[in-house]
Amino acid sequence: MPKSNNITATPTIAAPGLVGLSGCASTPAIQSESSSSYQQVDAEAAKKMMDEEEDYVILDARTQAECDQGHIPSSILMPRDTVADAAEGALPNKDQPILVYCRSGNRSKQASQTLADLGYTNVVEFGGINSWPYDVER
Description:
By secondary structure, this protein is an alpha/beta fold. The protein contains four helices and five strands; from the N terminus they run E-H-E-H-E-H-E-H-E. The protein is globular, with a radius of gyration of 22 Å.
């Protein structure tokens, strides 16, 4: 007589917003709707914003030594590791457009997220000066 495999199907009810999520990430896969975020654009879109917008800040998230080798005109230097402490004093308007760059794009992403976490609402990360084809002051 064949052995019977009793398999019972148990319906799974997914919580709203969790459908389709799986994996073993070490960081949470779900961000709440109140999560802080920033916008990412390429160099061309950032340059267009600089040409068309007014009252924006260009933030250089590199070190002083890197900045001394060349920087985007009118940018202010705020090394990534100082953003959490220096931003609110140097950038009092949390709704002002802030365009953030570094050397390759890694530190600018970190600085942009820090700004967003501090409540800045108009943060735009555009990568690194390595891929900036426009004017650089030396």
